[in-house]
Each structure stands twice: as C-alpha cells, then as structure tokens.
Design brief:
The strands form six sheets. Strands 2-1-5-3-4 form a five-stranded mixed beta sheet, with helices on both faces. Strands 11-10-13-16 form a four-stranded parallel beta sheet, with helices on both faces. A four-stranded mixed beta sheet has the order 12-19-18-17. Helix 8 (269-290) packs across helix 10 and helix 8 (269-290) packs across helix 14 (423-437). The protein is built from 18 helices and 19 strands. It is globular, with a radius of gyration of 25 Å. The model has no long low-confidence stretch (mean pLDDT 96). Helix content is 33%, strand content 14%. With 581 residues, the chain is of the alpha/beta class.
C-alpha cells in the first residue's frame, strides 16, 4: 500500500493504482472520457482528467499515471479548470450536436460535463465536422462517426475484452477516426453484434438499431396477433430506466406494461430456456454416453455463435445444435400455440424483448425459420422497451402485477439463471445429472461455476465420476480458453462442456441493457436473478409442468424428429471480412 494526498485528503491505495483510482477512493470525482472500469488499458487519450502533481513540471493524465508513496495531487486548480474547459471546447467543436433527437440525450457524459462547466452556447470557432456517412449496414448497431470524440473506449473493448477487433483507429492526423478497418462497413467487418462498444461509448456515436416503430405498426394493425416474449435479464434491469435500484425485480409490472402497450399475449423466454435445457441437456447426455465430440459448446448467445463461425470454425461440430431460447419460443408460438388457439401463424407477430443487441441479427439468419416464416419477427432491447413505455405515458413503477400467459409462460429457477454467466451450465447440469443417474439431485446450486471471473473450470461429480466443465465470461476469455484447449493444455483436456456468454456477467450485462452497466450494477442484477431461482417452485427444467405437457402433446421427446425440425439448427464457416481485402 502507498499513501497519497489528493486535494488535502490522505488515502492509502494498493501500489500500482492510478491517480484516478486513488481519487475515487478518496471520494473525489475526476472527469474522464477514455477511462472505463471494464477496460484495463490505460489510454490517457482525452486529457480531460489531467491533474497537477507536486514536483512534476507537466500536468499528467490521472487515468494512466500510477501513484507513488507520498505523492501530493491537486485536481481542481484554476489552471486545471481552464484546461478542462478548453478540452471540452475542442471536443464540442468536432461533435455533431443534435442533442434533442440523440438517443443518449439524457445519458451523455459530454452533455453532462458541458452543463457542469457552464459551456457557452456559441463556441469561439466554427464547428468542424468531417461529414462521415452514418453506418447503418448492420442489423444490430448504428455508427454515427460525426458524434465520435475519439476517446477509444469502443476500440479498447472490442479489441481487448472481446478479441474481435471490428473497429479501430483509421487514417492519420486531422482525418483520424474510429471505424472498421479498410473503410469497411460494420456489416462487412468481423463485428459479432455484442453491443459492448455502445455500452462504453460516452456519447451517442454508437447505438442500437431501433425497431420500436416496426413494433408500434404491428400493434396498431388490427389483423395481427402481436405476442411479446421477455428474457430473464430484462426483468432485473428495466426498473433502472424508471428510477429503481439495480436488481429490482419488476416481472409482474413489466407484463402489465406490455399488455397496456397493446400486446395480445405475453410469453416468457424462460419457458424457451427450460426447453433449451431439455434439448441441450439430452444432447450433452448422449455425448457423454457416446464419447463426444467434446467440449459441447453452448449455443444460446448469438454473438458467441458468430464468433465461433468466424474465428474458430474448426469447432463448429462442437456447438450444440439447439436453438437459443428466443428462437425456440418463437418457433413454438407459430406452431404449437397457433394450433391450440386456431390462429393462422401468418397473422402472428413475435416480438422479443432482449438484453442483447446480437439477437437483432440472430432473427435474420435464414436457417432460423419455420414453414418459411421467421421464428421471431422483431427484437427490441431493454432500453427500447423503456422508451416505448414512456412514449405511452406508462410508469412501470406504478403498475400492478400481472402473470405471463400460458402455455408458454411457465418456467423454473433453472431458466431464470440463464441471465447470468454460468447459469446455462448450471441449469444443464441440474437436468443432465438426473438424466444420467436416474437419481434426484438434492443440492441444485453449483456454486463452483458461479462468479464473474473471466474463466472458471470445475469438476462436478456425477454418479461417482468426475465431469469437468468450464465457463467463459466474455469472448476474449472464450478465445483464450479455446486456444489453450487446442494447444493441449493439461488442465483443460477433459472438459466436456463449455458455456460462453459474450457480455461481461452474461446477459445481465448485455449490449441492450440500461446505461451505465458497471461491475457493481451487474452484481446486483445477478443477486436478483439468483433470488428468483431460490424462490422458484421448480428448480430443474425437466420439472416444468408446461414443458412436460408440450412433449406429451406435441414434441414427443427431446431430440425427436419434430423437435429437431423445430428446435435445432446448423452452423457454417463465415469469413471475418465479407469483402475481399
């Protein structure tokens, strides 16, 4: 530990900490754009966080300067205040100022700092924009380069956290911009649509492709039966958009809100999660009995699936053929439910409310269709649903509780934990244990695979045999793990199953969740998800009565011919770049 004095406050911090981190511990907030707690790279690019250190001739960036014992730091001198105002002036001078219509209007770091520093309405020089075209080529994310302030957060998270490198610095000098390489569009780049770039963007330079108008039009169409399905991570996060604490569980209020918006039915994607476990758990059981191929790779996360198709296509046979829960729920809505209710599936519109931007691309995959129709018609994020509710003057906090509609609205605790990293693996193990042994699993919580560490490996005892499983939290961690497995790492050679979620913390940290999503917020959301599991009547997917009824009436058994037709898919090698370089 080293002792530092910041603005007269003495604080002890671990050696190697930055001045910014020491100031935070002392309760002093230093403004910054390029720093983000999820990005370990010390960028020091924006210069808004400059501080004065006694004994040094120059001002230093607090986010990238390590502390030394006895250091004396000042963060708020007259000169520093003038420097920050000057930096803000330069940033505003190259930033497209369409604040009233910007998706980040109420949640923009640049706008907040401009208010704090009482920036003038008119800048001392003309605004200089490069007039780059908006890149809306992707199904998931929109880039608006003229709003970019070159902080580098998106580049760092894409390169260092996710190992994708879909965007980075291009050109030089005054022409520099952060964009896909070789002047490609996002759709032509290796982008997997995870949305972590937009989660760390301090302004509105990157945002999700909005689908709310399409959903409104469907709701207003009297000839359509519009059905919503909601993912587990949404119900523990959307309350934040209405002033509730992170982790507030608003499941019943959310269902009421969706009915008030005009949805005819509201189903639970957790039903699809239970169904995924039935299919994927049976698949794992068969592989354990038949000797592989191992490891079985989970298939719930579309960003991860695309990552494998682009970067590890030699392991395509390892991915479970089970569709994601949203796809299974969509497919059954347009077959099983439509048949039960005597509704023409062509008149059904399925809308998924997801914590994820990559789901927007998943629904466009041509292989994810049933009888020539998309399983899911539209995906909106947690943030988009919040905007729709506010447009309709609906305050989620004030709503009474409602329940999901049946038959696709009943779920278990195993399905709830799909929303947190490690949850899919834990849910699969709960069912696979009983599938393999025929015995009841009394201790259902596999705490060995819980937590937010990037890579977790655990040995689970099933009927006297040790079974090794792994969980990777973020694509960067998954990439590292797969490379080590291929290199023959002794500690990893016997892994039979690997769960990967692209986003930090799993779906609860997805690219469609409320901003900001910090480590502390992710922990609170995870606690809420585990609380739902603990309080659930059924904790194993195969115990869900509605799932049992579905197999009795329609699907026959897991991996049956009809189950394969409706609930399973295939994968293919995809080139990282969609054009010749």
């Amino acid at each position: 530990m080293v002792s530092v004095t910041i603005d007269g406050i003495k604080v002890k911090v671990p050696e190697g900490s930055t001045i910014y981190e020491a100031a935070k511990k002392a309760g002093i907030h230093i403004p910054t754009f390029c720093y983000h707690q999820d990005i370990k790279k010390k960028v020091g690019a924006c210069r808004i966080c400059l501080v004065e250190v006694e004994g040094m001739n120059d001002y230093v960036p607090s986010c990238s300067t390590p502390v030394k014992d006895g250091m004396v730091v000042r963060t708020n001198t007259k000169e520093l205040r003038e420097i920050r105002k000057f930096v803000l002036t330069l940033l505003l001078g190259t930033h497209k100022q369409t604040c009233p219509s910007c998706v980040r209007n109420q949640n923009c770091d640049l706008l907040d700092l401009s208010h704090q520093f009482n920036m003038p309405e008119e800048l001392p020089f003309p605004v200089r924009l490069h007039y780059h075209p908006i890149d809306a080529s992707s199904y998931t994310i929109v880039r608006e380069p003229d709003k970019c302030i070159l902080c580098g957060r998106c580049e760092a998270v894409c390169t260092m956290l996710q190992n994708v490198s879909a965007i980075g610095r291009s050109h030089r000098g005054i022409q520099v911009e952060i964009a896909p390489p070789f002047d490609l569009t996002l759709e032509e780049s290796p982008c997997v649509g995870c949305g972590q770039c937009l989660m760390v963007c301090p302004v509105g330079a990157i945002y999700e492709k909005d689908s709310t108008e399409d959903v409104w039009n469907a709701i207003y169409d009297p000839n359509k039966v519009v059905i919503a399905q909601t993912a587990p991570a949404v119900r523990v996060a959307i309350g934040e958009e209405f002033g509730l604490e992170p982790g507030a569980i608003v499941t019943g209020k959310m269902v009421t809100g969706l009915k008030l918006l005009g949805f005819d039915y509201v189903f639970d994607t957790q039903f699809g999660a239970d169904l995924t476990i039935m299919e994927e758990g049976t698949e794992l059981t068969e592989r354990l009995e038949n000797g592989g191929p191992f490891p079985l790779l989970t298939s719930c996360c579309p960003a991860w699936v695309k990552f494998v198709e682009e970067f590890h296509h030699d392991m395509l046979e390892n991915i479970s053929s089970a569709m994601s829960p949203q796809q299974m729920t969509g497919a059954l809505t347009k077959t099983y439910f439509a048949e039960k209710m005597n509704i023409d599936p062509k008149n059904i519109v399925v809308v998924s409310i997801m914590p994820c931007t990559a789901k927007k691309a998943e629904i466009e995959r041509p292989e994810l269709t049933t009888n020539g129709m998309k399983n899911v018609d539209y995906v909106i994020t947690t943030r988009e649903l919040a905007r729709m509710l506010k447009q309709a003057n609906i305050n989620l906090v004030d709503l009474p509780e409602s329940t999901f509609d049946n038959p696709l609205g009943e779920s278990t605790g195993a399905a709830a934990i799909f929303g947190v990293t490690g949850g899919v693996m834990e849910a699969a193990l709960r069912s696979a244990y009983e599938f393999l042994t025929g015995k009841e699993l009394t201790e259902v919580e596999f705490k060995q695979i819980r937590g937010f560490e990037k890579i977790r490996v655990a040995e689970i005892e099933i009927d006297g045999k040790k079974v090794k499983v792994a969980v990777a939290n973020t694509l960067g961690a998954a990439d590292e793990l797969l490379r080590k497995i291929k290199e023959g790492d002794e500690r990893l050679k016997d892994i039979v199953a690997l769960e990967v979620m692209a986003c930090p913390g799993g779906c609860l940290g997805g690219g469609g969740q409320p901003i900001p999503t910090t480590e502390e917020i992710r922990i609170k959301r995870a606690q809420a998800i585990y609380k739902e599991d603990k309080e659930a009547k059924f904790k194993k997917s195969h115990e869900n009565p509605a799932i049992k009824q579905l197999y009795d009436e329609f699907l026959e058994k897991p991996l049956s011919k009809i189950a394969h037709k409706l609930l399973h898919t295939y994968y293919q090698k995809r080139e990282k770049y969609k054009v010749k370089i």
